[in-house]
């Protein structure tokens, strides 16, 4: 299933291999990092998205979880 990460960027849910969440206390943002295997399996790709609040990050992660299931 294709997952719309943002306008113009889609990932196949079977290609996602890791989801990492970091809190940058200096800038006060939450960063969600998706690691995925692109069509060239020899490399991994990374997609990073920043959120200004924990709530926004949680909403994104919940939507991601629902689409993967």
Number of strands: 5
Oligomerization status of the protein chains: single chain
Q: Distance between the terminal alpha carbons, to the nearest Å?
A: 10 Å
User: Main β-sheet: number of strands, strand sense, barrel status?
Assistant: 3 strands, antiparallel
Report the principal-axis shape: globular
Which structural category fits the helices and strands?
alpha+beta
- The string of secondary-structure elements, in order, is EEEEEH
Give the fraction of residues assigned to helices.
10-25%
Average pLDDT, all residues? 86
Instruction: Provide a count of the helices.
Output: 1
Strand content: over 45%
Strand order of the largest sheet: 3-4-5
> Which regions contain 5 or more consecutive residues with pLDDT less than 50?
none
The Rg value, from CA coordinates, equals 12 Å
Explain what you see.
The chain has one helix at 54-68; strands at 2-6, 9-12, 16-24, 29-36, 45-51. With 69 residues, the protein is α+β, with helices and mostly antiparallel strands.
Entry keywords:
single chain; 69 residues; alpha+beta; three-stranded antiparallel beta sheet; two-stranded antiparallel ribbon; 5 strands
Give the gist of this structure.
The protein has one helix at about 55-69, and strands at about 1-5, 10, 15-25, 30-35, 45-50. It has 1 helix and 5 strands.
Topology (elements, then pairings):
Layout: E1 2-6, E2 9-12, E3 16-24, E4 29-36, E5 45-51, H1 54-68
Antiparallel strand pairs: 1-2, 3-4, 4-5
């Amino acid at each position: 299933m294709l997952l719309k990460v943002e306008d113009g960027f889609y990932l196949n849910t079977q290609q996602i291999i890791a989801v990492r969440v970091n809190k940058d206390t200096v800038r006060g943002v939450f960063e969600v990092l998706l690691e995925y295997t692109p069509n060239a399996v020899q490399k991994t790709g990374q997609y990073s998205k920043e959120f200004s609040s924990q709530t926004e990050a949680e909403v994104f992660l919940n939507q991601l979880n629902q689409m993967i299931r």
